[in-house]
Amino acid sequence: MARYLTGIQSSGIPHLGNILGAIEPAIRFSQNPENDCIFFIADYHSLTTIKSAEQRIHNVRSVAATWIAFGFDYQKNILFRQSDVKEVLELTWILSCFTPFPMLANAHSFKDKSDKLSDVNAGLFSYPVLMAADILLYDTEFVPVGKDQIQHIEIARDIASAFNNAYKQDVLTLPTPALQQDSMLIPGTDGGKMSKSYGNYIDIYLDDKALRKVVMSILTDSTPLEEPKKTEGDTTFKLYSLLATEAETAHLASLYAGGNFGYGHAKQMLYEKILDHFQDARARYSDLMSKPEEIDAILAIGADKARTIATNVLNRVTPLTGF
Ligand code: ADP
Ligand code: TRP
After folding, report:
1. Dist. CA 222 → ligand 1 center (Å)
2. What whole-number distance in Å separates Cα of residue 8 and Cα of residue 23?
3. What is the reported pLDDT for 303?
4. Which residues line ligand 2 (CB under 6 A)?
5. Same domain (yes/no): 232, 303
6. For residue 267, how far is its CA from the centre of ligand 1 (angstroms)?
7. Which residues lie below 8 Å from residue 80, measured CB to CB, with a gap of 6+?
């Protein structure tokens, strides 16, 4: 059995980019019976940016409901909320005392964010240590992540090595990033990387009318209706191709090439494809979100399973450090 662990921050409602770029690929890992998967909602991490309790609680449930709606088998695996296993905070402190200050100061996610945010708090700075604790607390071997998170996994490895070297024992398991094969960037409605920070995301859980409006807002070039259109670099085509079969994609490509086919038609096809492709997940999600106590109960079971593993690992760490 290989242990995979990954987390998603509760900093918003998962959008199409999160789902295609992170959630679905991680669920595919979990469907391999050889893999033992621990997926969690990083609500402590989200405090670096979100201060509202109601918003965090809503986002935690929304991320959890998405994992479940997209088919994560939380009975065979573990799905939990980071803050339900407080042991992570103890390990964070211990690890922070094995983390060289310049390693955090040079982390590019910190440098990128601290350039843009008005609130540059110390939580944002020590974010990678909490993430290292998330990973090391569960003897994680592989961490499915996108490219932007690789440096954080390297930091976790470096911290684990520093700790192991200090006590001359293999106490902590060194994690390896499992780069998501199709970790291509999903474009947003403006053609740039889809992100909640850029306001260009597609929320697949919107009601039909609002969802159609967002799809219709996708930016296109100004090729006239009667002229043939290029598929390359066209966001509507790209998103359609990610959801459709090869034959359907080839058909749309031929409509683009043939002329007399407007972007409005293509967007209508994309909208219908989204409804069709996500019909079951949307229904399961809205059903779960109407029963928050059911989501909370699933997370509580996950927390118990996670805590058992965490306690074992922490029990290897604390005697060595004299606590
Ligand atoms: P956002 O950019 O909307 O704030 P996050 O940084 O919270 O998204 O990302 C959560 C997960 O979704 C990460 O694993 C990230 O790599 C993935 N992800 C986010 N946006 C995209 C995208 N446009 N394409 C592919 N994957 C994405
Ligand atoms: N930093 C990750 C992100 O923003 C979320 C995260 C927190 C995580 N802890 C983790 C991912 C541990 C993998 C493993 O996407």
Report:
1. 29
2. 9
3. 98
4. 5-7, 9, 42, 45, 131, 134-135, 143, 145, 149, 152
5. no
6. 23
7. 38, 40, 41, 299, 302, 303, 305, 306
User: Is 11 touching ligand 1 by the criterion CB < 6 Å?
Assistant: yes
Q: Which ligand is nearest to the CA of 151?
A: 2
- Structure-token match 């807002």, residue found: 217
User: Is 181's pLDDT higher than 70?
Assistant: no
Rounded to a whole number of angstroms, the CA Rg of the chain reads 22
- pLDDT score of 182: 53
pLDDT of res. 51: 97
Ligand 1 atom 7, closest CA:
9
Q: How sure is the predictor about 246, in pLDDT bands with cuts at 50, 70 and 90? A: very high
Domain that holds residue 231: 205-277
Name every residue whose Cβ is closer than 8 Å to that of residue 63 and which is 6 or more positions away in sequence.
8, 10, 14, 41
Please tell me the pTM assigned to this model: 0.95
* 166 and 217 share one domain: no
Q: What percent of the chain has pLDDT over 90?
A: 92
**Which ligand is nearest the CA of 7, by number?**
2
Cβ-contact 261, 255 below 8 angstroms: yes
Do residue 60 and residue 145 come from a single domain? yes
Give the pLDDT score at 171: 98
- Interval 49-91: pLDDT, tens: 999 999 999 999 999 999 999 999 999 999 999 999 999 999 9
Question: From the CA of 22, which ligand is nearest?
Answer: 1
Give pLDDT tens digits for 108-122. Answer: 989 888 888 888 999
Domain CATH for 79: 3.40.50.620
Closest residue by CA, ligand 1 atom 11: 18
Distance CA 8, CA 300 (A): 17
